[in-house]
Amino acid sequence: MVDTLLLWWIWLAAGLFIVGCGWRALKYLRAPEHLRWDLYPVAHEPGRDHGGSYLEEKDWWTKPRKKSHWGEVEFMFEEIILLRGVRVNNRKLWWGSLPFHWGLYLLALTTMGLLVAALGLSSRLWLGVIALSGGGGGVLTAVGAVTLLIVRSREPRLRPYTTPLDRLNLTLLVVLGALSAAAALVPGGMAQAVDAVSRVVRLRAPEVSLLLGVQMTVAALFIFYLPFTRMVHFFSKYFTYHEVRWDDRPVRAGSALERRLRGALEFGVDWSAEHIQTGKSWAEVATTMPDKADSAGE
Amino acid sequence: MPLSQLKSPEDLERFLLDNEGIAPRDLVPLPFPYQDWKDDPIPELTEEQRGRYEVGPDGVSAMRVPVPTTEEERDRLVAGFLDGLRKLLTKENNWTFLQPLMLSLENCVKCQTCADSCPIFTASGHAEIYRPTFRPEILRKIVSRYLKPGGSIFPKLRGTDIELSWDLVVRLAELSYRCTLCRRCAQACPVGVDNALVTREIRKLFSQELGLNMPELHEVGTMKQLESGSSTGMNPAGFKDIVEFAQEDIQEKAGLDIEIPFDVEDADYLVMHNAGEFLSWPENLQAFAIILSVAGVKWTMASDLLGYDSVNYGLFYDDVQYSRIAIRHFQVAKKLRAKRMLMGECGHAHKAFMPIADRVVPMDLHVPTESAFVLLEDLVVNGKIKLDPSRNEFPVTLHDPCNITRSMGIVEPQRNVVKAICPQFREMEPHGVNNLCCGGGSGFAVGQSLNFPAWRTRVSGRLKYRQILEAFSDHIEPETKKYVCAPCSNCKGQMRDLLTYYEAWDRCGILYGGLVELIVNAMVDVKEGFLEWEFH
C-alpha cells in the first residue's frame, strides 16, 4: 500500500514538475516582443572585450551581423558552473551558494544516471559513478543549504528579505541532501535505487528500504513545488539573458520580428491617466495627442 | 531605523512608512582635499510645503504629489494604484516591457549580490530605502498579496503580509525617483534580474494610470515638447535665432565663417541635438558645426516641430509619451529624406532613438541612426581634420554616460578620440560599461523640485564626484586646470550642479564640458583658445 502510494506520489510530482515548469516557460515564451532592453557586455559580440556592440561601427546597418556563440557558451559556463556573478560581487554568499548549486547539479545528474541504469544500461562501474555523484551531491547540497540558512538568518542585509518559506525550503534541502547522501552511500544503496527507479518508470510499486522510501518521498516533494518557487531560475535565466539582456536584434523590414511588433501596435490600451486616450489601439494612441495638441500624423 | 532592527520581511513595510530622512554623517567620505568637508543636511520641506506635497521616506520630494485631503481621494489613490498594477501585467497595456518585467518580478532570489553596485545605496552609507531590491520587493509583496490567486493565504509564511495604504503607495511612488535607472544592479545580478527596470515600471504605472510623475519630465518635459517642439519651450523661430547667434559666435571665437544648415533635404546626416545644449552650452552646437563643416560632411539640422530637440523624457517614465515623441522625431527625418540621423552628445537621446525606437517606430518611418562618437572617431583617428593635441595639454578624464555605454555598448569610439587629442588623458575607475552614473540619470538632472536638487548632489552624484577626484588625484591643486569630458547633456547638467555644490572649481580647478569642444580646441584650423576656462 505504502509502496503504491509512493509510486503515485512520484508520478504526480514529476507530472506537476513538467506541467509547472512548462507553464512558467510558456508564459515567458508567449509574452509579446518587448522593446529592446539590452545590457552590456553582451556575450555574443565578437572581439569586443571592452563590452562594446555593433553600434560602434560606422554604417552598422549595412554590415552583416556577426555573433559569437562561443562567447555565450563561455559566459554561461562561468556563470552556471562557477557562479561568476556571485563570486565577483558577493563572495560571502558564494561560499555557501557554490556547494549548494554543485550539489543540486550532481543530484540532477544522479537522477539521470539512475534513469539510464533503470533502462538497462547499467554496470558496476556505472553504479559506482552514480553512487559517488549521489553521495557527493547530497553532501554538497546539505552543506550548502546549511551555510545559506546560517548566512540568511544572521546577515542583516539578507534577513529581512528571507521569508519563513525560504527557510523552510532550505531546511527541506538540507534534509534532502542528507537523505540522498545516505541513500547513495549505504552498501547496496545504488542497486536498490536503480531497481526502485526501474519499477517506477514501469508503473510498478517500488520495493524500498525505509531510508530510500523517505528519500524518494522528500525528493518528490521538492520537485512537486519547485516550479512555483524562484528556483525556476534554472531555466528562466535563459530568458533573462537571451531574451532580454542579450537581445540586440535590430528590426528588419519583412522580418517575423517586424510582423509581431506590428501586431502589438494593434493592442487596445486602457490606461486611465488623462494624457492617454484610453480605448484606442497603441498605434492610435502613439500617433495622437490629448486634446491640447494636434494629431502627430496630420 | 537602523538595518539591524529589520528582522523579518514584514519589517520592510514598516521601514518604508517610518523612515524619515537620511543623515549627512552617513554619506560616504570624499578624498583629499575634502577630508574636512561638512555636508549641509538636505533641507526639510517648509510647513507650507509639507501641507501641499507628500515626501518620500527620505523627506525628499521629486514628484510633488499633492497631499490627499479626503478619505475618498486616498481610497482612489490606492484603488488606482492596484488597477494600474493589474494593467502593468497585461500584454495589451504593457507589451512593451511585459516579458522583462515578469522575469524580474518572479526570479529575484534576494541574494543582495546587486546591492554594492548601486552608487546611490553606497553613497548614502547603505540606507536601506535605496537598496536596489527594496522598492521591487515592496512591489513583489503587493503583487503576491493582492493580485495573485490565494494571495492572503499564509501571508506571514510567504512574506506577503503587506497592507496597502495611501501613504505606502505615495512613498513607493517617490522612491521610484531615487534610482537613476543606471542598471549597474542588473549588470551584477547573476540571475539576470533587472530591478532598475522594475523601478521604471513603477514610474510608468503612476504616470499612465494616475497621472503622477516628475513635473520636469511630464508637464514641462514631454507635454511641452509635444506642444511647442522642445522641452525648453523653444519654438522653430527661436531655434532659427539660436542658429544665427551660433554662427556669429563661431566667427568671433573660432575665426571661421560657417553657415549652419537646416532643413536641407537628402543630407547624409541629420544631426539631432538636445536643445538644452543650445541654451546652457551653446559652444557644443558651435563645435559640432565647426567639425562637420571643416571636415566637409554633408549635414543638416531640422527646424520642424521636435526636429531640433532630441530629448525624449518619455524613456524614463511613460511608454505612451515616449512613443509619441519618437514617432514624430522619425517623421521629421523622413520628411527631409535624411540618409541617417546622427545622435549628438546626449545619452538618453542615443538610447531613445537607437535601440528603443527601433521597435516602436513603424518600419515605413525607419531611418538609420548612428552615434556622433562613431563619426567623430572616423574624422579624428583617420586624420580627416587637422589636429594639434598639444593644445589640450591638461589633465582630462572621460565620464561614460550609462545610456550610451552600459545600455548600448558604445564605449571605444569616444575613448579613441580623447586618447588621440588629450596627452594627459586618464580613465576613471571603473569606466566603460562598468561606469558609475553621474547621479543625474533618468531625468534627475532636470529635477529642480523642492529639496530634490540637494539630494541629487549629496547622494546620487557623490560617488561620481569621488571618482573624478580620484582620477585627478595627481594634480588636484586648483592651479592646474582640469577637464571632465562628459559627452551627454543630462550628465553635464548634473556635473554643473555637482561641481558647484562641492566648489570644485575653486578647490580643485575642475571644469566640465563635452567631447566636441575638446576636438575643436585642438583643431589647427581654429583660432587657439576655443575652450574658455570659466565655470558656468
Oligomer: heterodimer
Say how many strands of chain A there are. 0
Strand content of chain A: under 5%
Rounded Rg of chain B: 23 Å
Instruction: Decide which structural class fits the backbone of chain B.
Output: mainly alpha
- Residues in helix, % of chain B: 40-55%
E-strand count of chain B? 8
Residue-averaged pLDDT of chain B: 96
Largest interface pair: A-B, 93 and 100 residues
Whole-number tally of structural domains of chain B: 2
Helix-strand string of chain A: HHHHHHHHHHH
**C-alpha termini separation of chain B:** 40 Å
SSE class of chain A: mainly alpha
User: What is the tally of helical segments of chain A?
Assistant: 11
Main beta sheet strand tally, sense and closure of chain B: 4 strands, parallel
Fold and architecture overview:
The complex is a heterodimer of chains A (298) and B (536). Chain A is 63% helix and 0% strand. With 298 residues, chain A is mostly helical. Among the domains of chain A are: 85-222, no CATH class; 265-298, no CATH class. Chain A is elongated and about 75 Å long. The relative contact order of chain A is 0.12. With 536 residues, chain B is mainly α. Chain B folds into 2 domains: 3-213, no CATH class; 222-521, no CATH class. Chain B has helices at 10-18, 47-52, 71-88, 91-94, 98-106, 119-123, 134-147, 155-158, 166-175, 184-188, 195-210, 218-228, 236-254, 276-280, 282-294, 314-317, 319-335, 347-356, 372-381, 402-405, 412-421, 452-460, 462-471, 489-501, 504-508, 515-521; strands spanning 269-272, 299-300, 341-343, 369-371, 396-398, 425-426, 482-485, 510-513. Chain B has a 4-stranded parallel sheet with strand order 2-1-3-4. Chain B has a 4-stranded parallel sheet with strand order 6-5-7-8, sandwiched between helices. Classes of the chains: A mainly alpha (298), B mainly alpha (536).
